[in-house]
């Protein structure tokens, strides 16, 4: 936590950043678009209820609410959001919550009356997560409340009174969303933050500025500005390109735009692949899923990214687009080496297409991490199986955290189809040579992967047996 103000670079912009804050229009000129929303709120707007605790989107002290044009309210981390991303949006902070006649808002009253605060540092973040939850009309069951609170940490009060307050405000009526500022064309802030509004503009910008980083939700790149204090020199923000934010499906496949957020993609993913429901609930928090994207998770090419092994197992393919046209590539062929991909300098990931499961197919996935919530995987796995007469007729299996890239386990698949699970488990050691790091040793990862295959065997052969920790 910083104890003094952080200098913010003052510059000139070609366009002005415009958004709505607590129902009031804001237009900014002279601030870098790479400034974090949190820094601007605290150091320029004087709204210090929103706090910094971790500077990486983990603790929730910086939580504010994004108010969508369709009326949805979504909690988000202001510490890793850049001002350029907020152009055209509406944001509400804890200072923007009020009840009738200036009284405390119902969420604030519920927190106070439930004794749900102690030192108070984290309380504004909890209040804003509770406000987003209340506005969503969700049921007040414990699983949903815990999911809504997974992105907020409290060190002193304990969560029982906070959960009690959340129960009281479930389904609370909220006012209509504010009208958002309109921007019909592309924008460029300081000639370093480019925000195209069409695919043609995006690929043209990519061709001209191949050195610029592609920015979707900033749940990864935002850390350069927040934690490292070294924001990128130039970015191309892809979140306003319709082709990249679309989610569609046919009777054979689901297509997710590379810049569609997890929150937008989850209904299609969980309805078609039920095994993803618990898995996605552990991918970051609601604050992260408000901004994070499948395309970003793939594009960073981390060997421990949560989604690549799952998508490889599902035989997903990418659409890569440039001014030269579009091409498709299997996701398993996209990762070349550690943090190296097949993406050419002038290309962007436009979409991810995932085949639907056929009759007789089953899909499972697993994630092991040091913390259950809010943690990157140590080992992740996805399995797509075709089962006939109790026997594995076909299989696609992929692991993350077991090699320099997310990797399909072809030798494991072959052994499983030919000789069963015992042979597949034995094949793990010949196929993978993981590294030691602070998340887990190579020996741990090998044993964990074997154990996950043993769990998979129990899922297939004894479907009524509880094999998940949550079910015990």
UniProtKB/TrEMBL annotation:
A Pfam family this chain is assigned to: CO_deh_flav_C
Annotated keywords: FAD, Flavoprotein, Iron, Metal-binding, Oxidoreductase
Gene3D superfamilies: 3.10.20.30, 3.30.465.10, [2Fe-2S]-binding domain, CO dehydrogenase flavoprotein, C-terminal domain, Uridine Diphospho-n-acetylenolpyruvylglucosamine Reductase, domain 2
Signal peptide start-end: none
Residue ranges occupied by any FAD-binding PCMH-type domain in the UniProt entry: 186-359
PROSITE patterns attached to this UniProt entry: 2FE2S_FER_1, 2FE2S_FER_2, FAD_PCMH
GO molecular function list: 2 iron, 2 sulfur cluster binding; FAD binding; iron ion binding; xanthine dehydrogenase activity
Entry-linked InterPro entries: 2Fe-2S-bd, 2Fe-2S-bd_dom_sf, 2Fe-2S_ferredoxin-like_sf, 2Fe-2S_ferredoxin-type, 2Fe2S_fd_BS, Ald_Oxase/xanthine_DH-like, Beta-grasp_dom_sf, CO_DH_flav_C
Domain 2Fe-2S ferredoxin-type: 15-97
CDD domains linked: fer2 (cd00207)
Name listed for the protein in its UniProt record: Xanthine dehydrogenase small subunit
Gene: xdhA
